[in-house]
Structures are given as structure tokens and as C-alpha cells.
Amino acid sequence: MLTGKVQALNTGKVQVIAGSGKKEVASGIIKTPVEGPVFLTKTKLKGDEQEDLVNHGGVDKAVCVYSSEHYPYWDEKLGIKMEVGAFGENVTVTGLLEKDICIGDTFKWGEAVVQVSQPRHPCYKLAKRHDVKELPLYVQETGYSGFYFRVLQEGQVSKEDDLRFRERLTNTTIAQVNRLNFQEADDVKGLRALAELPYLAESWRAGVENKLRKLVE
Hints:
By secondary structure, the chain is of the alpha+beta class.
């Protein structure tokens, strides 16, 4: 039985990040731990902000989750101490790895009910925050992406509430979805199955369908 032990519950406001480059960008990627209960709505944790509402937040990407088990790897790989929230996650968790979590997996979290919708797709703002240009590529190569929840039932949640497994609705893991997006992006059969997968976030499905069109045309 899968159970996620929440190590930290993180929120953040939109702010400017720069790194060593000249170009500054606005982002909500800088998340810090909060104590006590927080209300989880259909689209986000109360008090949390996203600057890019196309690629972050919304009904299919309300909560970003990242596994604390990956942090020692990144500390060694990058030679810097990565604090919780370093990947812009709302929930830093133990016990829910990409290889074990499937699209559609449903969990009870405090008063809320949440469901796995898609992997987290690494973007340039992650690189910008940590001033490591190759970081999104490293995430692709390792598959240490994290994932998103949609919210089936709103309610109060906290760091003290475990993510308690309720139901498995598909057998397609986050790790498999990542491989089809990056390492096996020319696997037409696999991509077709993914495009038809129930409970997959609609924006991710659209991306898969776009890849398929390019592969078969």
C-alpha cells in the first residue's frame, strides 16, 4: 500500500529570478515551507502563486509533488545543498517515486482527495533559479521529474497529513510517461496508447497527439 509521508508543504509568491545571466524572469518557482493547515482549492494551495498559468497551476496541475529521496543525488551531482522546495514543488514527499506512481492514482490528503495527472516537465526557470543551465536536461535523463495532482475534493491539508493511497485506475507509471516524452519519443505505439490514457492531463495529451502527427505524417 502506497503512503506518502509529507516532509514539507511549500508555497511561494511570484518574484524575479536572475541567476548569472542578464535576463531576469518572473516566476513562482521559489517555494518555502509553511506550517499549519492550508486550504487546497481545485487549482492551487491558498497563498501559492504561479506566474505562467499556461504551464503551471490550473485544474490538472494544482499541486506539484517532488520526492525527497532524490535530493541526495542532486546534492552530489550539483555540488550544492538543495533545500526542500528547490524544484518548485508544493509537496516534498517520501515514499512516492516516479517508478511506483501511476497516472490516475488517487490519494486522501487531509480533508482533500487528489489524483496523479502528469509528470512535472522541467523548464528553463528551474535552471535559472539554481544557475545550472543543464539542470532541465539532467532531470530528463534521470527521470527525477516529480509529478502533479489534480484536486478531486477541496479541503484543508497540512504537513502532518499523510498521502494515503485510495485507488489505482491505470498501470502507466510516471516513469513510463517520462520515457515516452524523452528517451522513447519515436515510439508510435506507446505514444498512441498514452494519448488514449484516461486521467492524463489534457495539456499533456495534446502534446502527445502533436508528436504523433509529426511522426506519422
